[in-house]
Here is the input.
Amino acid sequence: MNKPMMTMVAFAVAAALGMACLGCSASTAEKEDDGSLATSDTPAAEESEGAAEDENAAETETAAEAEVAVENEGDTNPEAAKAANPTVEDSAAEPLPPYAGDADTLDGSIANYLIAEFSPGYEAPDTWIPVVQTVAVDESNAEDIECWGSYWILGYNQNGTTLECTCGGNYPGCVHLAKTAEGGYEVSSMDVAEDGERWYGSLVEICGDDSALADEIAAATDLSAEPQAGIRTDAIRAYVQENGLNVTAYQDFGWDPVEL
Here is the structure.
């Protein structure tokens, strides 16, 4: 049975940004000519004095404008500026909070480990929400608790009230955890099925040559089937409710949204 160890879902998200461009008009000084000529009746000194007065008045006006600009610096009203300039865009939406699994449970600790261990291999989405489906547990050794199952990390970007899945991967195998002094769990390592032709054979080996357990894990890698589809929906719903998000559905590319 050949099956890739990691199933990646990569989607191109197109965003159309309307950009309005404000043109800047440069004023050009134009010389007025009313056809009149200077005559000897106008003393040259008087003309010079008038020009000096005009120059002084212009300098005084410029200085007054600069003083007003300094006084008003920092007093800009953002709402007024936005109303006056329609190209001012709304600030970006608040970033989604990171997913946090309950470290007092095996599944919560595994979820946190999956994000920390495997998310660097993907382009960062708005948030990660793992799908943890443990099918067998051996807690006989508190220092090496073994959990076999199918484990996903899935990345989502928020689009309106929908979380759109943009990337992710599946990591079936066995997670090794230890009980902490505080009563929680800490992952020490994970055995993951190999990629390519060795996928099933390596999974059987991880399961201690228990092919029935390997078959159960293999079946659990199908996110469209139950119970994993329900586990995924429950995980997303819990994340949304815990963080008080205005999200009503999630969606895979090419599929209808799934209501929460």
Summary: The longest strand covers residues 145-159.
